[in-house]
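As promised in the previous annual report, we have extended the structural survey to additional targets. Below is the entry for Prephenate dehydrogenase.
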Amino acid sequence: MNVGFLGLGLIGASLASALRDRPEIHALIGYGHRPSTVDAALSMGVIDRAVEQPEHLLDCCDVVVIATPTLLAQEQMVQLVRIAETMESAPVLTDVASVKGNLWRAVESMGLPSWPEYVVLGHPIAGSERSGVHAAKADLFVDHRVILTPHEGNSAAAVQRVATLWQWAGAEVISMPVELHDKVLAATSHLPHMLAYSLVDTLAQSDLSVDIFRYAAGGFRDFTRIASSDPVMWRDIALANKDEVLSALDAFSAGLADLRVAIANSDGEQMMTIFERAKSSRDTFVVKQNTKKDETDGV
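The corresponding structure token record, generated without further manual editing, is:
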């Protein structure tokens, strides 16, 4: 199998690295708009060869993974589908974008007779605050979930091919409706990033910023780690999933307002209710995560 990567950043390069030693893989072929990135990917052995234009991947690959930021991925998916629709046999097209609704709507708005059976949208729930080809990790997806959002027009073979790629990379593959994906990820991923960016930006502009960052300890570092993530990627995610991100921000703001009222009123009982409820929820989450890891380790 030949697998193509449109985009050689953290996710694309990590998936290519994870597939490197699979006997089923014949060639890993990439495209990047920066020559320096392509050169690095070749010298690091992330890909076997490169193409000069994204559409060239369609001619030489069985699967093409669009691994670029969300809004760019939307444009590239449409461009590749237009070309693939003229081919006698199109490769499977998939993506890794953190938002699925915008790609789904973009393909549906192309005016095709039906959903292209070879377009299978996906999202790996794994990443890092680091970015670029040099941040690639072959084990990035091990024991992490990948969410596929299949369309009823997909061929079973196309869905299975995408699922198999991720399973080869060590991931657990699940399926989810597009709308639910974007709502859940807005709460669990997009909102925390917005909070981290906002907190660091607010404190950085404070008159006390020098002392704040000088004396910040582990809790601040852990909470704000994701504010070091790629700003372009997270700008695109917030714009692409605007409605759900705003809904999550509104729900958080309401909860924060309740906590502020409790503090202002010296209402220790209400504060304890909020803190204990939060602690219980997070403790349960951690136990479930550890249980899942133990079960995986035992396989």
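The chain has two domains: 2-176, 181-265. The first helix runs from residue 10 to 19. These points will be discussed at the next consortium meeting with the crystallography subgroup.
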